[in-house]
Design goal:
Number of domains: 2
Protein name: ABC transporter permease
Strand order of the largest sheet: 3-4-9-6-8-7
Structural class: alpha+beta
Radius of gyration: 34 Å
InterPro entries: ABC-4/HrtB_transporter, ABC3_permease_C, MacB_PCD
Distance between the termini: 28 Å
Biased composition (Basic and acidic residues): 208-252
Shape: elongated
Membrane topology: Multi-pass membrane protein
Order of helices and strands: HHEHEHEEEEHEEEHHHEEHEHHHHHH
Helix content: 55-70%
Number of strands: 12
Strand content: 15-25%
Domain ABC3 transporter permease C-terminal: 310-428
């Protein structure tokens, strides 16, 4: 007799129980695989985006916010710090590399970061086409930005004030694309890189006319004893450009500010001394990205563990459902099984039939569960990309997938072992004579 064909027919004998077993088991597998994949991808993405950054220095406030804003670029900065004060820290012999960054503008949600040529080194980013920025108002695009908007070398666009995709006014000065970076699969891909001078110059020119207009209006309201001051403002309006240019360069000097400073240490001793010195003796704040992200893992880990335990609970329920389905099949078809025994089938063949049915349910549920997890994770990552401009790769670890499959196999085997117990105690003569 063909045990395999009989198992397939039994598989369809009670469709409701079969459906419930597949449904609950596939949901538990989808939750287990999906949460493991999201947690793994989330951790890898954060670790990769750290690059070689050991410390972030910025304005006083939340250290986690400082790291999220300056390293991952998914939060608002805590404020600005004087560039001159940051320069003093950059000359510390225990610091290997210190890169200033300044931002406050965006292009359709993608942040424009003013920095130096050392910033791409943190992420091992290289120019794919074009060149690096050399003059103010020149930008180099991350791979994701260039692909999304289709910019070519020489194209221009206008940045918007603020970090939100909508609501900010556009700056008058256009930015020129001079280069595009190779894909790094890190935060660099979704940034627009320019020089510090660009950020300063855009905001300086924007604030300049407003201040001059305010001064001119004040001049018309002043009394006669302010005539000297009025003449000075009339000189500015009539084209004394030398003084304006001097003031512009002065603003880029001691009065300029940056958002934060990204630091890489020369040795582990610096990690112990420098952050404490900065936090205790300056108006700036030092945050350690690895430490802060580990705290973030602890916060998110509670939710991950909760969902994981829920998935385990559903897995247990699904295995109980499979056990009930198989057990009822044995009880309801006891006469047929006894008849098979009378025609020469042994207990092993009947047990094998039960095993086939159990693993058909488990195999179908596993395939559906993995597909559901991939669909769910894909839509979640698309939502993250749309909201945070953060591209995350779908990483399916086969090791963890096999571990989940092994756990499902063990639970199904346990359900089968309990369900086949009536077969081992079957009294053929009583069943065939319809005796109880």
């Amino acid at each position: 007799m063909n045990i395999w064909k009989i198992s397939i027919r039994n598989f369809r004998f009670k469709p409701l129980y079969t459906f419930l077993g597949i449904l609950t088991l596939s949901v538990s597998i989808a939750l287990l695989v999906g949460i493991q994949q999201m947690d793994k991808s989330f951790r890898n993405q954060l670790d990769n985006n750290l690059g070689e950054i050991d410390m972030v220095v910025g304005a006083k406030g939340s250290p986690l916010q400082l790291v999220l804003a300056s390293v991952l670029h998914i939060d608002n900065p805590t404020g600005n710090i004087p560039f001159e004060e940051a320069k003093g820290l950059m000359n510390n012999p225990m610091i290997d590399k210190a890169v200033p960054i300044s931002y406050g503008d965006n292009y359709k949600g993608y942040r424009i970061v003013g920095t130096t040529h050392d910033f791409p080194v943190f992420y091992n980013a290289v120019i794919k086409e074009g060149r690096s920025m050399e003059n103010p108002m020149e930008v180099v695009l991350g791979a994701t930005v260039a692909e999304k908007f289709g910019f070519q070398i020489g194209d221009t666009f206008q940045s918007s004030h603020g970090l939100a995709e909508t609501g900010g006014h556009e700056h008058a000065a256009p930015l020129t694309v001079v280069g595009v970076y190779e894909p790094t699969h890190k935060v660099m891909d979704r940034l627009i890189i320019t020089g510090l001078e660009t950020i300063w110059e855009v905001h300086h020119h924007e604030e300049g006319p407003i201040d001059n207009e305010h001064e001119v209006n004040d001049d018309h309201e002043e009394d006669d004893h302010h005539e000297a001051k009025e003449e000075h403002h009339h000189d500015e309006e009539n084209g004394v450009h030398e003084n304006n240019e001097k003031e512009h360069h002065d603003d880029q000097g001691p009065g300029q500010e940056i958002t934060s400073l990204l630091v890489s240490f020369r040795n582990p001793m610096a990690l112990l001394n420098i952050p404490r010195t900065i936090n205790e003796n300056t108006n700036m704040q030092a945050a350690l990205p690895k430490f802060e992200l580990e705290r973030l893992y602890q916060f998110t880990g509670v939710g991950v563990k909760t969902i994981t335990w829920i998935a385990y609970a559903i897995l247990v329920i699904s295995c109980i459902t499979i056990f009930i389905s198989l057990y009822r099949m044995v009880r309801d078809r006891a006469f047929d099984l006894a008849l098979m025994r009378s025609y020469g089938a042994n207990r092993f063949q009947l047990v094998k039939m039960m095993v086939y049915e159990g693993f058909m349910i488990a195999g179908t549920a596993f395939i559906i569960g993995v597909l559901l997890s991939q669909i769910g994770v894909y839509f979640i990552f698309e939502m993250i990309t749309d909201q945070y401009k953060q591209t995350m790769s779908l990483q399916l670890e086969y090791k963890e997938l096999f571990q989940t499959a092994g756990l499902v196999v063990l639970m199904v085997l346990l359900s089968i072992a309990l369900a086949i117990y009536p077969i081992t105690k079957m009294n053929i003569s009583k069943i065939l004579s319809h005796e109880k």
